[in-house]
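step: validate -> pass
step: tokenize input -> pass
step: predict -> running
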Amino acid sequence: MTSFASTLAGHGLSLRRSRTEILQINVGKLCNLTCTHCHVNAGPKRREIMTRETVDRILSWLAATDIPTVDLTGGAPEMLPDFRHLITRLRQLDRRIIDRCNLTILLEPGYEDVAEFLAANQVEIVASMPCYSPENVNAQRGDGVFDASIKALQQLNALGYGTRLPLDLVYNPLGANLPGPQAELEADYKRELSGHFGIHFHHLFTITNLPVSRFASYLRHNGQYESYMELLVQAFNPATVAGLMCRNTISVGWQGEVYDCDFNQQLGLQWQNGKPLFLWDIDAGTLDNRAIATGEHCFGCTAGAGSSCGGAVV
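step: predict -> pass
step: emit ->
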């Protein structure tokens, strides 16, 4: 198979960092779900979770920078024991906060007031909702997840999300397929969710499933890994490279280690400078034009219309 590096070179392209605009913090692998498309291999039995000490070291580092946006992911970020402490301190630092929420966590015992907490702190929510039909959602995320997701979305709407507070949804394809056109899918979602459930949201983000961790295992188990990789390679779009999220995002792991993106994080492609680097080892002002670590999984973010944490790239 053609390598990603040689594909970039063949188009006269290189992949290097621009100005850092987003600090994405993966707080750990603990989650109440075990989705088939999960590149983190998260689940209820995982024990990797960020400590209070690491949270505070990250906050201290962030306070000395002008990075405007903090993007929280996991696992389920809300299951971080110090989640409220982290959000409160980020608000004090006057940063834009994004919570990548699986929706169902908002209904779990002990988390029933999290939605109100998020609304009170004006946290933006990017919510996983892989389809507007129960069959597809439950197949990808587990039985009962669709109904729970609908109930959580209705709860968020009642708190002002989808109107005065930002609420975006994420679509992941079912199986070894590329996402359809983002604008068309968004229109379908808005029609179906509004018409059947009275649910409103702002934007739909289409995100390609990357052949990493649990989804890679799913592909291999079903004999689809090679054909899916070929699909991604054949769909490479050079126009996506300038808008890739790895160019303006620092990805931080649950121990404070630094990567170019959350996918590199799950593959262990940690920043190095003679030794592994942690966030507090780096100077945010000196990162422009730094080379980005790549691998064959990068074909996922550059296929078709491209894929980022904010959806399609082009």
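step: describe -> The first helix runs from residue 4 to 10.
step: cleanup -> pass
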